[in-house]
Amino acid sequence: MLHTLMKSPYFIDLDTMFLMVDLNDDIIMLQDGVIFAVDENFVLTYKSYINIIYILKEDLEARGLKNINSSFKVINYIQFVQLTFKHTTQMNW
Q1: Which residues are CB-contacts of 4 (< 8 A; sequence separation ≥ 6)?
Q2: Which of 51, 70, 77, 81 has fewest C-beta within 10 Å?
Q3: Taking Cα atoms as reference points, which of 69, 64, 4, 22 lies closest to residue 43?
Q4: What's the rounded Cα separation, in Å, for the pair 31 and 37?
Q5: pLDDT of 2-32, one tens digit each?
Q6: Which domain holds residue 87?
Q7: Which GO molecular function entries does the Swiss-Prot or TrEMBL record give (predicted)?
């Protein structure tokens, strides 16, 4: 499953979200969800739940975010589309 986090992590139930994440799932942060990746953010403690969390480059740039934690993988729209083909189901947060 592909989990898409589109809201600020301050406004969603991260505990519930990460309880639903399976080892075969992918997570991508879009729109205001990219705030999740800002370095020294308290929500980074959730990062240990999954190996790779993707961040959409265009949304980072649109919000002027530059201090991104290096453990996230920044991807573009083409790579995002590839993730949607990889996963037949999606959950939007």
Answers
A1: 27, 28, 30, 33, 90, 91, 92, 93
A2: 70
A3: 69
A4: 12
A5: 999 999 888 888 888 878 888 889 999 999 9
A6: 2-92
A7: transferase activity
Q: Which long-range contacts (CB under 8 A, 24 or more apart) does 6-14 make?
A: 6/30, 6/31, 6/32, 6/33, 6/92, 6/93, 7/31, 7/32, 7/33, 7/93, 8/32, 8/33, 8/35, 9/33, 9/35, 9/36, 9/41, 9/43, 10/35, 10/43, 12/93, 14/43, 14/46
The pTM assigned to this predicted structure is 0.84
Strand partners, 91: 3
Closest CA to 52 of 89, 8, 3, 13: 3
